[in-house]
Amino acid sequence: MIAGGFQFLIAFGLFIFFVLASGNLEASSKDKKLREIEIRIKGGVFEPDVLALNYNERVRLVFLKEDDSLCKEKVFIKGLSEEIPLKLGIRTTREIVGRKVGRHHMECETGAFCGVIFVSEDPNNPPKHYYVPHPE
Question: 0.90 exceeded by the pTM?
Fold first, then answer.
């Protein structure tokens, strides 16, 4: 009777271990599918300055501020309710989700227009080219 109970506990423990391990493997495979977009800020220009997302797509934005000429401390993506702090020479990562279809401007704390994020319902119909004015 004791041996049977012991075997049950071992089998139950292994079952829990594999259930938890499979959940972790699933989560890590989801992270690998996450699209990452690096945005470099130098000389008053965001590169790239036009981004296209599908509706409900989750992406990881990585901002790298290479100089102090624009966006002293923050970037705002108002239509997506995002406020992203920046530090010179340090990569700042933020995951965002395209939850609102449309055009969402990226702006500095000064209100300077830095770029645009398009969120589209139809992945087969990407946005047309959009001009982003750059400081001279």
Answer: no
